[in-house]
Structures are given as C-alpha cells and as structure tokens.
Write a structure and sequence with these properties.
The complex is a heterotrimer of chains A (178), B (409) and C (220).
Chain A (H helix, E strand, L loop, with lengths): L2 H6 L2 H6 L7 H10 L4 E2 L5 H8 L24 E5 L7 H10 L5 E5 H6 L20 E3 L6 H15 L20
Helix pairs in contact in A: 3-7
Chain B lengths: L7 H4 L14 E5 L11 E7 L2 E8 L7 H5 L7 H5 L7 H16 L5 H29 L4 H21 L8 E2 L2 E2 L6 H25 L2 H7 L7 H7 L4 H5 L6 H4 L20 H24 L20 H4 L1 H12 L7 E4 L2 E2 L4 E8 L7 E5 L1 H6 L1 H6 L4 H11 L3 H5 L1
Antiparallel strand pairs in B: 1-2, 2-3, 4-5, 6-8, 7-8, 8-9
Chain C lengths: L11 H12 L3 E4 L4 E5 L4 H11 L3 E9 L11 E9 L4 E9 L5 E2 L8 H12 L3 E2 L29 E2 L5 E2 L1 H8 L16 H6 L7 H12 L1
Parallel strand pairs in C: 2-5, 6-7
Antiparallel strand pairs in C: 1-2, 3-4, 4-5, 8-9
Helix pairs in contact in C: 1-2
Classes of the chains: A alpha/beta (178), B alpha+beta (409), C alpha/beta (220).
The complex binds iron/sulfur cluster.
Iron/sulfur cluster (SF4) binds next to helix 4 and helix 6 of chain A.
Chain lengths: 178, 409, 220
C-alpha cells in the first residue's frame, strides 16, 4: 500500500487493511496505561499482599504492572501499601516528589486510606493528605484481586475513560505536557 | 577520623606519596525506602572502603502505637491488633497474647482448641519461613525461588482462609479458645499439604542449598559468635544458628507442645548459611508437629465454657435470663481478670515473643508490653555486619529476618 | 498485691540469686505467675551484673510501667522492669525499680549491650532518663512529637469520625461513656470498664445480680 492510499481510501477500508487512526495522545495513553510500573513502597501487612499479587496465581504481569522499581525515578505509580506513620509521611512525600510526571498513587488498604483500626497519635489518618491519591482500595488487607482491580481502574483513568460524580468525562493525562 | 585499612598500602603508588592521602569513613544512608531492607528499616552505615566500620539502625518508621491502642481496647478486642504487629507470623502473635490473657484470667482451653492452635501456628511458621526464603534469596539476586515459595504460600493461605475467612491478619484465636471450629475440609486440606510439601522442600534445597553461588555468598558471612549473640539478646532461629539450643516450645512448653515429638535444629557455624539452614530444617520439624497434632485431633468443644469468658450459646438466650445477663455484660464490658501481671514466653518464627500484661481489675489491660523478637534481634546486625563487606549487609539483614511491624510496634 | 493462692515456684538458681539481690537491698515479691525482686534504683546495675554472673544469660526485655491511673497505687509513679531468663536452668526472673519522673535510672548497657534499644524505647515512651546510656535518643516516635506516648496522661490522639451527613463520632468521648467517666453517646454509664469502679462493684464473679444492678444503673 502506498502513501497515496492513505489519502484516497476510506477510513473503513484502511481499517480493514490493518491501519488504525488515533490521536497521538490516545496512543501514548494506551501505551502508558499498559505499562504502569509501581514504585516499591511497601510499608506493612498490605505489602505482603502486594508481593503476592505478582506471584504465579495472581500474576499482575498480565497488566504490565509487575515490575516493581526500587528507584522512584523509574516508576509511574506509587502503591502505598500499609499504614503510614507520621514519621514516614515526609519520606513518602519525598519519594513521590522524586517520581517523574505523570504519576499516580494507589492507596492500598484501610490504614492508608483512612487510618483503619489505628486511630491514634502515630498513624496518618489518610494518605491523601500527604500525596494525591487516585484509587483507594478497601480491605485489611485487600486481596490481590482487589489490587489488580485497582490497577485496572487506574488504567481506565489514564486512558480517560472515567467520569466524575456528575457524569462528566475526565480528560486523560496529556502525553507531552508536564 | 583517619583510618588506614588493611590492604591500603598496596593501593598507593609509593611510600612517600601516602602522606598526601587521607582516607575517611564514608557515611551512607540505606532506606527507609529500599528494596532489600524488608520494609522501612533505615540504616546509617559508615564505610571504610568496601568494609563496614559502623552500622546503626534507625527505626520507628512504622511505629503504630500498638501498645497504647491496646490499653484502650477490651481483652477480647486486643486480638484484632496483636496479629497486625507481625503480619508474617500472625498466629504466633495471637497465640502469645491469648496465652498471657488466659493465664491472667485462669481460663482452661479445651484440648481441641489447643491442637488447632498448634496446627495453625506451625503452618503459619512455615508460611513465614517461606516469605523469608523467597525475599531473602531475592535480595541476593535470585528471582526464581521467590515464585516457588509464594506458590506454596498461596496453598497455606487457602487453608487459613477456609478456617478464618481472611488470608492474613486472622484474629481467629480468642481468650479461652477459638472463634469457632474449623470447617470440615480442614483436615483434608492440611493432609494434602503435608503430603505435597516435602517434595517442594527437596526442590528448594536442590535449587539453593546445593547451589555454589548461594553457598559461596553465604558461608562465613555475618558470623555471630555465641557470646556476641547472648550479649545482644538474640533469640530464635538466628540464635540457634549460633549454637544455642533455645526454643521455648521445648524450654517452657505451652499450648501442649510437650506432647509432640520434634527436634530443634541447631547449627554452630553462626553464619548466614547456618541461619538459612536452621530455618530450612525448622520447616520440616513444623510439618512433623502439624502431622502429630492432626492425628490427635479429637472432636470436642473449642471454647472454654466458663461464662465469665465466653458468650453463652445462642439457644440459651431465649430461655435463660442469666444467659442474657452474661451475654450483655460480656458484649458491653468484656471480662475482668483479677489484678496482677502475666507473661508467657512463646517461640515465634523470629524468636522469643511474649506479652507482658498488667491488669488493674478492669476490662481493658492496664499495660501491654510486647516483647518483640525482631527489635532485639536487630541489635545483632552490628555484630554480623561490622568488618564485613557492604554487599554482605543485605544478606545479613535478610537472614536476621526482621519484620518491621514487629520492630516498631 | 494479689491474694496469694499459689505463688510462682522459686527455682534453685533463682533462689540463690534472690538471696544475693536481697543483700543489695532488694525485696522479693512472689506473684502467681512471676517472681520479682524490687530494687532501689542505685542497685540495679549491680543486681543485673550479679544475676548475669550467676547464670541468667538472656536479657529478654526492659520495659516501663506508668502507675498514674492504677487504682490504689502508692509510691513512685513509674516502674522499670527487667526480664531475665536463664537458658541453662529454664528460669525467669523479673527485676523492678520504682522511680519518679525526674529520677534518672542507672543504665545497664555497661553490663549488657542488649539493653541499648529497649532502654531507648523506655526513654522514648515514658520519658525516663537512663544515666550512662551511650546513645539516649528517641527510637520510635518522630523527632517532632512532644511528650511520651505511653504515659497515662498522653491522649491516644484519635481523630473524630466524620459522616457524610455532618454527624461525627468522637471516639474518646464515646469511650469515656464506656469507662464510666460520662454518659457518652450511648447513655450507658459503664459499670466496671476500668479498675477503679471494679473495686467498688464486685469484680471477678459477675453474679447475675451484680450484673443486673449495673445494667439498671445504665438505664437511669
Ligand atoms: S489495612 Fe490492614 S493489612 Fe493493611 S496495613 Fe493496615 S492493618 Fe495491615
């Protein structure tokens, strides 16, 4: 097929030939959503379930999210797995700041999301007050399946397929701006 | 501080030039967010070239205020908290707590409940050691074993889930017994596990115990001599790897451990390899205990029938006013142990674990002090690491097997 | 403190050690489940050394207790407990010193390095100072936390639970209701959640009629 065909043929015809049309933004978002690399930020019990979600049975690799990066510089999403103490909060913020844009946060477990059963002097009652959270996962600890569901939700968000409370479609994250 | 390490001379150009060089210790920070510190351990290390001159753990990044919170919960509610401390060996913490509380209360636990407790605790010990192997060897750069051990761990988690309803953080033991009896499938599941697991252990041992890379990486690394171990307050498998045969399941049997026939693996080498080997043997011993306990599992009640501790059976509530009153008292207040204190040492997967409870006669503990093994064991890190290579530090942390929830409380 | 039904037995090693500890000014207390020697603060280092040399070779723990709210407690506000174990003999011995707020406790780190972390923990949690400790810093709590969490007058620090419709639940007030300090949200004035009240009511055998009385009280 020559370049000329691109201008002469119909979209449907081209699609039949295996050529898809998209915007660059959509393409980038599609690629990005399927390779969300988490930063290891295991804090407590939930981290063990986070580990389990990469094992043979649950296999988070299917979603392209199994590569836990030790360095925040190489990560897209931070999974806050476990209770975050007030001593840890500044460290967490710092790790988050070190991650390159665009970046997302999953708050895993009751403790990270709301303090859970530890309503006391030592624990941050909602990590949303430290880092902006995109997806909250309930459970104590959430099953690996729940974490995988959260990653799926996050993928939707990255691709711009989510709606806010009023039913307005939220824009996807732009690929080339910071 | 200026130091001249051994071998320093060989690196310099000539005798006259050495005066110009000044060698300093380099201080580097590891953690708290670091893949091989098992959570949120932070270490400040002074390096002399490649060798560690000083190492000091900085902890508290997971301080959760357990002890304070427990003082504000009734005795039965504390069970929800204890297992979240050491989330890898949850049943061990639950058991330690309920034993202390039962001692205070004078509760008599039915035999069936004790057997089930032992089975679950030992299975949990295996699953804890599986995490230890998977992540420990992962830290050395071998990825494969992690997937194998996690596969077996899933099998165990399935058993736990069928019994308790959750995969981790069970809260299944109660002061005076168990929450409820185990399901019918329990015995079959556990027997299936006992049948299949030794084969897996052989596979693991073929994979790493005889693996040259692994053996060379661990032998002679991080040696802790007996005297240092006792000076540092080390307990558990790491102490047994240094040659002291201290296991509270044998030394002060609790929960019917005296009935079972098992060995306590001990090694005298005291190095990282010995710490791996001791834990490896321990899994086989645990399996023995589980099998014996399962053989002796008789049907029966799983809760102390004492009305002061356990709720009356449901059907009695309709006929007996007294039952209603006890029910009401237990639900609104909980029970009241007499004044005094209790401490029952147990052997968790990491070492001596015990709850020191002080009761003031009220329905919440006046003071809960948890003697956690990981905190004390962490002090041995210095003995193991100083003088060794920086790269071996990771091996030493892995073989100490600290769980940060246990360290920071 | 407790009425002695059956005090914990004294092993041969413990008996020997206790004898020499009493020589240091200690007082033997035998409770149902523990053998404890209460010592004056200045003697603790010698006491630990004596015990260690005699055969208690494992320092299990060092812990603090704050007696502020303990019903009927007399004497200094804090205690520091030492938990020793003898591997060879299988015996356990508790030592204890009673101190007041501003009194430093001699550190036993010179005798036993294992005490380093746990003494720091007691310092952090109770604010008790250990004289002679090489590195007395906070260990668990963040640098900027003021106060010492395990003191009884340190609040648990709960945040209220907020509901969507604007109602909120203050856990501290809720529990105050349950321990009998106030009516709380349930209106149920707890009979005996805490030891103080348990003194006046009948504590242990919750007889049906005692239960009924406190239930009646709740309705009032
Ligand atoms: S939510 Fe539950 S499992 Fe997760 S960190 Fe908190 S206590 Fe642990």
């Amino acid at each position: 097929m020559g370049l000329k065909d691109l201008f002469e043929k119909d979209v449907q015809e081209l699609e039949r030939d295996g050529i898809l049309f998209s915007t660059l933004g959509k393409l980038v978002a599609w690629g990005r959503s399927n390779s969300l690399w988490p930063a290891t930020f295991g804090l407590a019990c939930c981290a063990i379930e986070m580990m389990q979600s990469t094992n043979a049975r649950n296999d988070m690799a299917r979603l392209g999210s199994e590569v836990f990066r030790a360095s925040p510089r190489q990560a897209d999403v931070m999974i806050v797995a476990g209770r975050c103490s007030k001593k840890m909060a500044p460290v967490m913020r710092r790790v988050f700041d070190q991650m390159p844009d665009p970046k997302w946060v999953i708050s895993m477990g009751a403790c990270a999301s709301s303090g859970g059963m530890f309503n006391n002097y030592a624990i941050v009652q909602n990590v949303d007050s430290v880092v902006p959270v995109d997806v909250f996962v309930p459970g104590c600890p959430p099953r690996p399946e729940a974490l995988i569901y959260a990653v799926l939700q996050l993928q939707k968000k990255v691709r711009g397929e989510v709606f806010d409370q009023d039913g307005v479609e939220l824009p996807m994250v732009e690929g080339w701006t910071r | 501080m200026t130091v001249k390490p051994a071998g320093y001379q060989a690196l310099t150009l000539s005798e006259e030039r050495t005066g110009d060089f000044e060698t300093k210790l380099m201080r580097i920070n590891v953690g708290p967010q670091h893949p091989s510190t098992h959570g949120v351990l932070r270490l400040v290390v002074d390096l002399d070239g490649e060798r560690i001159a000083r190492i000091s753990p900085v902890i508290g990044y997971l301080h959760t205020g357990f002890e304070k919170t427990m003082e504000h919960r009734t005795y039965q509610q504390v069970v929800t908290y204890s297992n979240r401390m050491d989330y890898v060996h949850s049943f061990g913490h639950d058991l330690a707590y309920v034993l202390s509380a039962e001692q205070l209360m004078g509760a008599r636990v039915p035999e069936r409940a004790q057997r089930i407790r032992v089975i679950l605790t030992e299975l949990n010990r295996i699953s804890s050691h599986l995490v230890f192997f998977g992540t420990g060897i992962l830290d050395m750069g071998a990825l494969t074993l992690f997937f194998y051990t996690m596969r077996e761990r899933e099998q165990l988690l399935d058993i736990f889930e069928s019994v308790t309803g959750v995969r981790m953080n069970f809260g299944y033991f109660r002061v005076g017994g168990l929450y409820q009896d185990v399901p019918e499938s329990f015995e079959h599941d556990v027997r299936a596990f006992i049948a299949s697991f030794p084969k897996m252990l052989d596979q693991y041992s073929a994979l790493f115990a005889k693996n040259d890379i692994f053996v060379n990486r661990t032998t002679g690394v991080g040696v802790i001599p007996i005297e240092r171990a006792l000076e540092d307050g080390l307990t558990g498998p790491s102490l047994r790897a240094s040659g002291v045969s201290l296991d509270f399941r044998k030394a002060q049997p609790y929960s019917g451990y005296e009935d079972y026939d098992f060995d306590v693996p001990v090694s005298t080498a005291g190095d990282a390899n010995a710490r791996f080997a001791v834990r490896f043997q321990e899994m086989r011993e645990s399996l023995k205990i589980v099998e014996q306990a399962l053989d002796r599992l008789e049907p029966g009640p799983v809760r102390d029938p004492d009305r002061r501790i356990s709720l009356p059976p449901r059907n009695e509530l309709e006929t007996s006013m007294e039952a209603v009153i006890f029910h009401f008292k237990l639900v609104t207040e909980g029970f009241h142990p007499p004044r005094g204190s209790a401490y029952v040492p147990t052997e968790s997967a990491r070492g001596e674990l015990g709850y020191y409870l002080v009761s003031d006669g009220g329905s919440m503990p006046y003071r809960v002090k948890v003697r956690v093994p990981s905190l004390m064991n962490l002090q041995s890190l210095e003995s193991a690491c100083v003088g060794g290579l920086f790269a071996d530090m990771v091996v030493n942390i892995a073989t100490m097997d600290p769980v940060m929830g246990d360290v920071d409380k | 403190m407790t009425t002695e039904t059956a005090a914990a037995p004294l092993g041969p090693l413990t008996e020997r050690v206790v004898e020499s500890l009493v020589g240091l000014g200690g007082r033997l207390e035998r409770e149902p489940f523990e053998v404890r020697v209460v010592l004056p603060a200045r003697a603790i280092v010698d006491a630990v050394r004596t015990a260690r040399e005699a055969g208690f070779d494992l320092l299990s723990d060092v812990f603090g207790i704050d007696w502020l709210r303990y019903p009927g407690h007399q004497g200094p506000r804090f205690s520091v407990g030492y938990n020793l174990y003898s591997i060879g003999h299988g015996e356990r011995l508790f030592l204890r010193v009673d101190v007041d707020d501003d009194e430093p406790v001699p550190s036993i780190t010179g005798v036993w390095k294992a005490a380093t972390f746990v003494e720091r923990e007691v310092y952090d949690m109770f604010g008790l100072r250990f004289s002679g400790h090489p590195d007395l810093r906070k260990i668990h709590t963040p640098e900027d936390l003021e106060g010492h969490p395990l003191r009884k007058d340190f609040p648990l620090g709960e945040t209220p639970t907020l509901f969507n419709d604007g109602r909120f639940l203050d856990p501290a007030a809720f529990r105050a209701g349950m321990i009998g300090a106030s009516g709380g949200l349930t209106g149920w004035v707890g009979g005996a959640r805490k030891g103080v009240v348990a003194e006046q009511v009948d504590p242990a055998p919750a007889t049906p009629c005692a239960g009924a009385t406190s239930a009646d009280e709740g309705e009032r």
